[in-house]
Specification:
It comes from Ophiocordyceps australis. The chain has one domain (2-131, 146-272): Ribonuclease Z/Hydroxyacylglutathione hydrolase-like (Metallo-beta-lactamase, Chain A, 4-Layer Sandwich), CATH 3.60.15. It has eleven helices and 13 strands. The protein has helices at 10-13, 62-70, 89-95, 107-114, 142-147, 191-194, 198-206, 214-224, 228-239, 258-265, 267-272; strands at 15-20, 23-28, 31-32, 36-37, 40-46, 52-55, 75-79, 100-104, 128-130, 148-153, 160-165, 170-172, 245-247.
Length: 273
């Protein structure tokens, strides 16, 4: 059940702020397996057209809805960034029925299996599904494509969708790159609840981009990449994009030396591609 992973009262702990005039983030506590604190984050982008694209949506609280309304309120795209980041798709789809749902292959099937045991998961159609075979030809929408580059990292265990918002030079992604610890995402949580345990500390060391990031490299190389050749090709394509900021779902936003950090974290893959 997703209820064991997410905060019971998200309105009390959600942090909402703009990282640029056209991009807002919604950061919340989130525990992997209900035990390891990694944080969660949704991203809302106002496109050049004036419509909104929402990536990895989190709980649609009153404050989240107010931010969406402030940005114009016309949600046209709801994007599940991988097969894990979809818990609140149904809530947003009901609130914005004209939105097109986007996700990777396997997402619809996974959601269908979870419906019986999780009341947050609905039966909404995934309108745009990325597959290994169609990822170079698939298009999401004219207004969306005017602002975004995207890559389906089918070689990743979680089937990652990665987006570059060209106007803001911002990379938006879920599990391709963490930036732990999740300081902002736990900044409104009582100090005792935010304190990392032993498991938190170990995983945060493995998913920190500080220093030489050797544990991040090892995790990506040995655990995340289920098809290393395809993974290498995808990472190489993303590395060719121009971005100055990385918005991860887990951990703090990377505001400085984003390209350098990306290249450092994926050094082995970039050298092997």
């Amino acid at each position: 059940m997703s209820s064991s992973l997410i905060p019971q009262k998200p309105q009390d702990v959600m942090v909402i702020r703009n990282v640029t005039p056209s991009t807002a983030i919604m950061s919340v506590p989130f525990s992997r397996f209900g035990r390891i604190k990694i944080g969660g984050r949704g991203t809302v982008v106002k496109m050049t057209s004036g419509s909104l694209a929402v990536f990895s949506p989190v709980a649609l609280t009153d404050a989240a809805k107010a931010k969406v309304d402030e940005m114009g309120g016309d949600v046209r795209y709801l994007v599940a960034l991988d097969i894990e980041h979809h818990i609140f798709l149904s809530q947003w789809a009901k609130a914005f029925p004209n939105a097109k749902l986007v996700g990777p292959e396997g997402l619809a099937e996974k959601r269908a299996k979870q419906q019986a045991s999780d009341d947050k998961i609905g039966s909404e159609q995934i309108h745009v599904t990325f597959t290994r075979e169609n990822k170079r030809q698939l298009r999401i929408g004219d207004d969306f494509d005017a602002d975004f580059e995207y890559e389906y990292v089918d070689g990743h265990a979680n089937r990652e969708l990665v987006f570059l918002h060209r106007p803001d030079a911002t990379l938006i992604q879920a599990d391709l790159l963490f930036n732990l610890p999740p300081r902002e995402q736990y900044s409104r949580v009582p100090e005792a609840d935010a304190k990392p345990g032993v498991a938190d500390g170990m995983f945060q060391c493995m998913q920190s981009v500080e220093g030489d990031a050797k544990w991040v490299r090892r995790f990506n190389w040995y655990m995340a990449a289920k098809d290393r050749d395809s993974f290498n090709q995808s990472v190489g394509r993303i590395a060719g994009w121009e971005f100055t900021r990385i918005i991860p779902c887990h951990g703090d936003v990377v505001e400085r030396d984003a390209k350098g950090i990306f290249d450092k974290a994926f050094k082995w893959h970039l050298e092997a591609k």
